[in-house]
Write a structure and sequence with these properties.
heterodimer, A: about 170 residues, alpha/beta, Rossmann fold, 5-stranded parallel sheet, 3-stranded antiparallel sheet, about 30% helix, B: about 300 residues, 2 domains, 11 helices, 9 strands, globular
């Protein structure tokens, strides 16, 4: 995917939010780090700004005993009450579903949203938990030793989505 | 940089970068305590044991809350009613508890070096919660955190530590911590209570309170440990209070306002007058608040170290 395609997907997401969910009492929450960038971009496209928050899930991961403490820890920034709000949860890639599981736990510790809808840029399959997106920009079917890499200007200096072989670093788009 | 240490024994052993990792991680834990649900599942299933061979309410409570807010299970080991009073060594005590599969010991002991001895004999993490006159690393870390939060930095700030430096583990840890992060440290107290040759580790020494606090960004008052004054280091408490106790009169003489810190518990009327403890420049309760986040960071990093 290139810059234009990413832009198009974000427009579709914004449309979906306006038409099906409505902007009243709705908030977007992006999962750090790239989900947070996407959340900001979607909010810019909407006809009216709505509250945006960012979720850091480091402390909610289920692989602590495997990978240990991660000294690179971010902060959750959600400066509004999520009780009874309609929440759009945004992330770049949906893979095993474990990140989303952790994000849901983190969200529920902050309050009781009316509902949570999951919007992702790319769904790459190979789920390990019963989680499915409410909106996905692109579904790709790739092998387990391949990775989807989402690069965004704010973090990586350019917009693109590429598929990378895990071991030799060769790329194909 | 990655955190690799199993234990936290003192700030003397830590590098500047390691101290900075702890402060950074503490930042992300701070808001957990302000939420409706004051808990994250980071240490779920881990067991933390408070092993206090010396009485403490504040530090033990702070560690206990920190561990609980990380979802760990906490066991407080009551030494007075334990086998220690039947003559068991500290290493045997720790090994016996470890045999029940625990992940971390928080150790306080009146003898310097006790936590280190335990750490060398167990696989579990050991965190020093104060040992003799040696170190009290988490106190210094929360002090560093508090100063950095208030002044935006540690480098080049001036901190004056007042009181019984000789017997104070809080002073020792703070001197290491503040020096490593680039602060200018002055110590001040009655001559018998200032260790000889302390200038050699790069701190300034003065026996005069007025010159110690003038120009300081932070005035750090130590608790006068009355239980340690039996060997006649001081002529009298009254004299100490007159020369080194901070009151309104002495504070108002300094030109620029300075923050006031104290590790608690305070001896009101001895090292600190009530009017000083209640001042808006006093950070004493903020120190206590930040203790939770800092200790959460230490528990999280040591228990979750890379193996």
């Amino acid at each position: 995917m290139d810059e234009k395609e990413i832009e198009k997907v974000l427009k579709c997401m914004a449309d979906e939010i306006e038409k099906k969910i409505g902007l009243d009492n709705t908030a977007i929450i992006g999962i750090k780090r790239r989900g947070a960038v996407l959340a900001d971009r979607i909010n810019k496209i909407l006809s009216k700004k709505i509250p945006v928050g960012y979720l850091d899930i480091t402390f909610y991961r289920d692989d602590f005993s495997k990978i240990g403490a991660n000294p690179v820890v971010g902060t959750t920034e959600i400066l509004f009450d999520i009780d009874d709000r309609k929440i759009i949860l945004v992330d770049d890639v949906l893979y095993t579903g474990r990140t989303v599981r952790a994000a849901l736990d983190a969200l529920i510790d902050l309050g009781r949203p009316k509902f949570v809808k999951l919007f992702v840029l790319v769904d790459r399959g190979h789920r390990e938990l019963p989680i499915s997106p409410d909106f996905s920009g692109k579904i790709v079917d790739i092998a387990e030793d391949e990775m989807v890499e989402v690069r965004l200007k704010e973090v990586d200096k350019k917009d693109e989505v590429v598929i990378v072989k895990k071991w030799n670093g060769k790329e194909k788009t | 940089m990655e955190w690799k240490r199993k234990d936290l024994i003192g700030l003397e052993d830590l590098s500047k970068e390691e101290i900075e990792i702890i402060l950074k991680v503490a930042e992300s834990f701070k808001d957990v305590s302000t939420r409706a649900v004051k808990k994250v599942p980071a240490l779920r299933g881990k067991t933390v044991v408070n092993l206090f061979f010396e009485p403490s309410t504040r530090t033990r409570t702070s560690f206990e809350l920190a561990a609980k807010r990380l979802s760990a299970d906490v066991l407080s080991f009551d030494v007075s009613s334990s086998s220690v009073s039947k003559g068991e060594t500290i290493v045997d005590t720790a090994k016996n508890i470890e045999a029940m599969k625990v992940d971390c010991f928080i150790v306080r002991h009146s003898i310097s070096g006790a936590p280190e001895i335990i750490s060398k004999n167990v696989e579990a993490s050991v965190i020093n919660a104060g040992d003799g006159c040696h170190e009290h690393p988490t106190q210094a870390l929360l002090d560093l955190y508090t100063v950095r939060e208030k002044l935006g930095k540690i480098k080049d700030i001036k901190i004056s530590i007042i009181g019984d430096i000789l017997h104070s583990r809080v002073a020792r840890s703070n001197i290491w911590g503040f020096k490593k992060l680039g602060a200018e440290v002055t110590v001040c107290g009655p001559p018998p209570l200032i260790p000889k040759n302390i200038e050699k580790i790069g701190v300034k020494v003065t026996f005069d309170l007025e010159s110690a606090i003038d120009g300081a960004d932070v005035i750090y008052l130590l608790r006068l440990q009355r239980e340690r004054q039996k060997e006649n280091f001081l002529p009298s408490l009254k004299e100490y209070s007159f020369l080194y106790g901070l009151d309104k009169e002495k504070y108002e003489k300094i030109k620029e306002k300075a923050f006031i810190m104290h590790p608690g518990p305070m001896n009101r009327g001895i090292e600190i007058k009530s009017e000083i403890a209640e001042k808006e420049e006093s950070l004493i309760l903020e120190q206590v608040t930040n203790g939770i986040a800092t200790r959460m960071a230490v528990l999280y990093l040591t228990i979750g170290r890379k193996v």
